[in-house]
Amino acid sequence: MHQPVTDNPFVIMFINMVIVFCVLTAIWGLIELTHLLDPTKKKAEQPAPAPAAPAPAPAPAPAAPAVPEGLSTETVAAITAAVTVCGYSAEQIQAIRPAEQPAWRNFGRTQGMRTSR
Q: How many angstroms separate the Cα of 37 from the Cα of each of 13, 28, 56, 64, 95?
């Protein structure tokens, strides 16, 4: 019958941990080899030589959002504040325009006709 080499649990734990870390190191090596041999990786382009000290361009002023006709300044300010509260900056607003949703408008009209006064 076969006799175990040791009954000490610390020696068994050490042997098992060495095996686990050897396997992990081998997997890491395979991953690094795959990254080196990856044919789909884009090649690094050589940087173009920089032109000799171009004149600094003036910084463009942030564009104000496009305001459709009929909206007051207060309405635009309220919409901008609401969008800013949601986590966006005022510079990210590109346009403010009414959404065409005739179904909502018609629903309001029919509800108004159904209510008795």
A: 36, 14, 42, 49, 47
- Do 93 and 65 meet the contact criterion of CB atoms below 8 Å apart? yes
- Kindly report whether the global pTM for this prediction surpasses the value 0.70: no
Q: Which backbone phi and psi does 95 adopt, to 5 degrees?
A: -155, 150
**Which residue type sits at 16?**
N
What residues does each domain of the chain span?
A: 1-39
26 pLDDT above the threshold of 90: yes
Strand boundaries in 18-76, DSSP class E: none
Which pLDDT band holds residue 110 (cuts at 50, 70, 90)? confident
